[in-house]
């Protein structure tokens, strides 16, 4: 054994304690550090010929790289839809690395059984029935891709083609209908060979991002019986708008289509009695996407994909090999997702659900929604700002008063990021350049929200300044 490896092995408990102490200092300082680190990244160095051992590597990381990491796990990082990591989830994630289980297979370990238990808990949490089976994937993009891959196979069945065998060229043109599809949907269509151009945008309700169900029915009627894919939204990115899932599900009785529901973070509305009605009808979906490193607050990367059609899932993703064989009975996860090998992503989710239960995670959801409304009310009171949409759940979409050009809005976002107080992401809503603040972190409090509002108000009241070497915002 190499002497550095041998030395690290002999001192492993001490090294783990050093890593634990360093991580504890970093996490405890999240509230004080800039949300987005100023300055650029260090210049790359050549691969060392002789290593420094684990302790030396930790010291080099702490000196060169740690100062430039963002506080994305902290309470005022409101860009994208980014959760943090609950204490229990961090515990589970560290143990995931320590045990280093390959969860794709089911032999010689209880890891796959733990994942199935976690999937059962999540299915119950989101109001899905026993007909839905699930699997862990890296994030919403892969979850949407897997769901649409099953839809592709389903379409092939209706045309007498096994796409998984004959290829997508044998399928012919595909119709994919959606009101406000997330950007990962056309990306998935590209990956699957269906093509971005096959996505047909259906008109939405006035002043909304929710699809007009009557117009969707007209689009389906125009297909004259040809099968299609409908991508419904349970929470849009800009305004957290929800399609009427129950009404769309009712259309399935009349038209032949595959219903995929993108519930990446909006699905968590099911946890709260006040908002659960928004997800009514999700159980009728043929496939469902839910992203766990958003509102469940587990570390990256973790999402789930649910489907009513595990047989199609096995057909698409089964791994034919002499040492694996074809799946019989309950298939191993190697036959359900694109990955043959992967870490036990379920363990951080299992820890967080076991630690805080439905009640604890409901509190996170309801507190984040209340804080989003608090920020929205504050922004409505700032003369230089205006809301672009009602605060429906956990996202605040707003812009500058007057003429919100791209340059002015982006300058506002950069100024907020450069202040170190908060991080927001840009968007465009109803043709207007805007910023959006997404609340999904378990740490965020009322005082954090007030600090965000103050930072945004200060930046809006000040003339835009030239961009220096500050935060890389856009």
Automatic annotation (TrEMBL):
Q: Which cofactors are reported in the record for this sequence?
A: pyridoxal 5'-phosphate
> Does the entry feature the keyword Lyase, yes or no?
yes
InterPro entries this protein is in?
Aromatic_deC (IPR010977), PyrdxlP-dep_de-COase (IPR002129), PyrdxlP-dep_Trfase (IPR015424), PyrdxlP-dep_Trfase_major (IPR015421), PyrdxlP-dep_Trfase_small (IPR015422), Pyridoxal-P_BS (IPR021115)
SUPFAM superfamilies, from UniProt?
PLP-dependent transferases (SSF53383)
Any one GO BP annotation for this protein:
carboxylic acid metabolic process
Instruction: Write down the superkingdom of origin.
Output: Bacteria
PROSITE patterns under this entry?
DDC_GAD_HDC_YDC
Q: Which residues form a coiled coil?
A: none
Q: Which UniProt keywords apply?
A: Aminotransferase, Decarboxylase, Lyase, Pyridoxal phosphate, Transferase
Chain positions found as N6-(pyridoxal phosphate)lysine: 294
Any single Pfam family the record assigns to this protein: Pyridoxal_deC
Molecular function as annotated in GO? aromatic-L-amino-acid decarboxylase activity; pyridoxal phosphate binding; transaminase activity
Per the record, the similarity remark reads: Belongs to the group II decarboxylase family.
> Protein name, please?
Aspartate aminotransferase family protein
